[in-house]
Amino acid sequence: MKRKLIFSTLALTFLSSAALAAPGESGPGHHRGGFAHMDINKDGTVTREEANQARTEHFARLDRNRDGQVSMDEMEAGMRQRLAQRFKRLDANNDGRLSPEELAARSQAHFAKADRNGDGAVTREELRALRPAAQHR
What we know:
Layout: H1 2-17, H2 35-38, H3 48-62, H4 72-90, H5 100-114, H6 124-135
Helix pairs in contact: 1-3
């Protein structure tokens, strides 16, 4: 029960804060709700207190009008901000549009990272090897 509560808190904080990465902290491994952000004392673990602090900080970022509640408009604003940051990273030529080549470049980079042995194929083991890294972003 205790583990489920901690995991649920971590998952909720991690997933919901992906929508509100701070400018300059977007991209893989840099969203504010990641494990590294919650591990305040950088000891490789996240305590209940650290998770609670991260959740409180995340709520404060969402609650833009500081009324103690998060409205749909506030949630959407955060999601739009995150989406705009993601779009800007993908738009390599800064023309405000994404070409198939720009989208392919991102996909190819992800594939290359997953293909650890460089054989041109990704196995389940290689994908599993990426999961721990993704969980510690």
